[in-house]
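Justification of computing resources. Each target in the renewal requires a structure prediction run like the one illustrated here; the chain below, 354 residues long, is used simply to show the kind of job we budget for.
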Amino acid sequence: MQCVQKMIQVGVLFFFWVAVHSRVWAEPQAGSSDSGSALRKTTWRAQILRGRESQIQGLTFVESTIPVVLVLKEEVLRPAVELVGYYSRPGWRLVAQGYSLLGKMPDETEFKFFTYLNSALNQLTLVAWGPSDQKEEEQVMILSPEAKEFRISPPWGESVISLGAGSFSYFQSDYGYFSSLPLLLHVNYSTPRWKLPVGIYTALQSTILTTQSNPKDLSPQIVSGNLDLTYRFRPKLSSPYRWNVLAGGSYLTLISNASPFGFANLLAFEFGAFVDYVISTESSWVARLHYSPLGSLTDFSQHGIQFRLGWTTTLSNFHRIELLISLLNYHFLQSDQVTKVQSNIWGLTLGYAL
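Resulting structure tokens:
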């Protein structure tokens, strides 16, 4: 048992270390040629329209009809296109939206860059500069009537209500063992994530109904809560990971309901991390870890661990559902520094984001 606990502690510290040391990447900008796996494919198409007059000499595009992709930017999926072409004119350079396009490909006359679509008809200005500061300018139109952006979560933040079933086991040194099969209720709220990298996360979890217990006729309830500040790292376009770290406080209490054991109002500092692994535009894997040192930072025998792992997907109405496995594990000494308490809840919940 002690070996298992040590493995859990090492895993907790490693998970947090990876989160803290995860590199902070920049968001994709117009003009970037990074076409990594974070781009979401769509069935939409865009058409490049060029006027017959005032075209830049020597400028060609590989295709006039191009696919539209969705790019995650500040919790909004924005439509974008990648323009690929050639500009063969010795001594001249080609610029779009402040970015020099040439010299980034093995063929120095080839260019690739992304640009966002802000409406059904978008205007892009390309400028060619000659060796003696000659200037040629062309207005390229990009037509895509179907393209639109999607906000992943509402502007006031996101609340998730989850229900499920669990397994509760409890040990108290002056009582013994208790176990039950309760139903679980979990509610959490996160502030909007696209405005600032710093946010607030708060959660409340409780057992609400005991379906089976040993000893019988006992139905204690565990209630836990969290209040944390969160920090979101900016992801690289090519990375499917969305890393966040957190720090705040946790709360745990046991409502005995006439049971001959229990404790009340355990408050502790906590820290941790959570990550989304993006599968597609709609779906991702999610993991969340909270760790509370209930003794000293080096006393791993007293701890609180909350872990949630699962899958989430966005419905056609842009609300999310999530299916999660959770663990709530606490080992500590009561205030008399003699009575040992071990509380453990495994749960399987289905949640709906409001």
